[in-house]
Amino acid sequence: MLVDQVLATDLQAARLLEIFALNEVRKRTGLRVDTRYCKWHLYPEADRAQSVEHQSYALNRGYWDDFWMRKRTRANHDPPQIADALPRRGYFEVTLDGFHGF
Q1: 64 contacts: CB under 8 Å, gap ≥ 6
Q2: Which domain of life is it from (predicted)?
Q3: Domain segments of the chain: what residues?
Q4: Nearest by Cα to 95 from 15, 25, 20, 12
Q5: pLDDT single digits (tens) 53-69
Q6: Which of 7, 82, 92, 98 lies in the 20 to 30 Å Cα band around 13?
């Protein structure tokens, strides 16, 4: 079942998806979870030269991959340090409805 179908048929599931879509998991549960929705581009090759749209997608995807592996070594109001660029954490992706939404 696709997300669109869940939203139309299951109010409880729709509310849960809304919490994730609006990035409110931390606020509502206290868990340190950030949620973001990323569209997926289906291309046989990971070649950025195929289209401007795919190149933009690949650059943005790379930005977020890099962003989520970092963790500040000092307070957020301090300037970033070289050590902040080292991989210090990970993330995982959850597929809600296959590759729908591209």
Answers
A1: 36, 38
A2: Bacteria
A3: 1-37, 38-95
A4: 20
A5: 778 878 888 888 888 78
A6: 92
